[in-house]
Amino acid sequence: WAGFADDIRAIIELKKQRNAVILAHNYQTPEIFHCVSDIVGDSLALAREAQEVDADVIVMAGVHFMAETAKLMNPSKTVLIPDARAGCSLADSITPADVRLLRERFPGVPIVTYVNTSAAVKAESDICCTSGNARKVVESLGVPRVLMIPDEFLARNVAAETDVEILAWHGHCEVHERFTPADIAALRAAHPGVVVLSHPECPPEVVAASDFAGSTARMSEFVAERQPQRVVLITECSMSDNLAVQHPKVEFVRPCNLCPHMKRITLGAIRHALETMSEPVEIDPSVAFAARRSVERMLAV
Ligand code: 13P
Ligand code: SF4
Questions:
Q1: Cβ neighbourhood burial of 191 (10 Å; 0-12, 13-18, 19+)
Q2: Closest by alpha carbon to 125, among 103, 153, 92?
Q3: pTM exceeding the 0.90 threshold for the entire prediction
Q4: What structural domains does the chain harbor?
Q5: What are the backbone dihedrals phi and psi of residue 208, each rounded to the nearest 5 degrees, phi first?
Q6: Where does iminosuccinate bind (predicted)?
Q7: Does a cis peptide bond (omega within 30 degrees of 0) precede residue 280?
Q8: Could you report the per-residue pLDDT of 78-109, keeping only the tens digit for each?
Q9: Closest by alpha carbon to 18, among 201, 214, 273?
């Protein structure tokens, strides 16, 4: 931690000068998550909290679609992304033109879009969802069939829990698609009694082999409430690092996979963002209204 002290002190001072708050996703490294963030959470919590921010500046310690969502929900604020290259393989897997083609191919079928997408894709959608509310959103529509884009595995995991027929796209999270049921069998053999929590972006066979599946916030709640003796989080590595700080009695078994996009956000990048007010996120006015409507419909569910 000592190596981070200079950046941490500078960021805390810059936040005051700029009247800024830092929103951080659960996959941010512990020095960001625990030392400089004002609000932490999963994608759903960050979208909700962004709406409530009163400060002039929001720094999104997360990936680009999260910063776009914050800007959509609170357009009068300056929203900074410390590294504009922080993307997401799911967001990259689908374009607005793809969504328009899906609508032509499946007329009348509502399009439920994971928040891990660009604002332009959200604008072509009927409603958004996150991993924390996907089933609820799908069932709220009261229809027998929906399109759920772009995460194939999230769609198939939700399909396993609901009677609604779900048509999926072929996007995958490059972090979660790499986990296999064989990994889980090996972990259980090597660490008897380990409780296995997985993210719903994992393949359905991985979720089926786990003890619990849920969004990053649900995983945190599970650990906080149940205090398992040994747990493995089948997700991005910083989840375990952050929870291990809060729950020293719980043994966190690895492995995990790193998200290269989340890892572009560093203390140095946050400090630079606040020093230079870069990079501000702007949303094309032609898509902002419709994209915001999709997110607001989700938040109303
Ligand atoms: P959560 O909404 O569960 O935090 O997930 C976001 C994400 O990018 C997972 O890979
Ligand atoms: Fe995207 Fe996966 Fe990284 Fe989450 S973990 S930001 S879904 S690539």
A1: middle
A2: 103
A3: yes
A4: 2-86+263-276 (3.40.50.10800), 91-174+285-300 (3.40.50.10800), 176-258 (3.40.50.10800)
A5: -65, -30
A6: 25, 43, 114-116, 131, 199-201, 216
A7: no
A8: 999 999 999 999 999 999 999 999 999 999 99
A9: 273
Q: Tell whether ligand 1 has an atom less than 6 A from the beta carbon of residue 113.
A: no
Cα 19 off chain centre by: 25
Beta strands 57-61 and 20-25: pairing type? Answer: parallel
Partners of residue 113 on adjacent β-strands: 128, 149
Q: What is the mean pLDDT of residues 5-9?
A: 97
Rounded (to 5) percent helix, strand, coil in the chain: 50, 15, 35
Query: Position of tokens 């936040």?
Result: 15
Helices (H), 106-151: 119-123, 134-140
What are the angstrom distances between the C-alpha of 203 and each of 38, 178, 182? 33, 9, 12
The residue whose CB lies within 8 Å of the most ligand 1 atoms, and thus the one to mutate among 89, 201, 243, 262, is: 201
Which protein residue has the closest C-alpha to ligand 2 atom 2?
Answer: 173
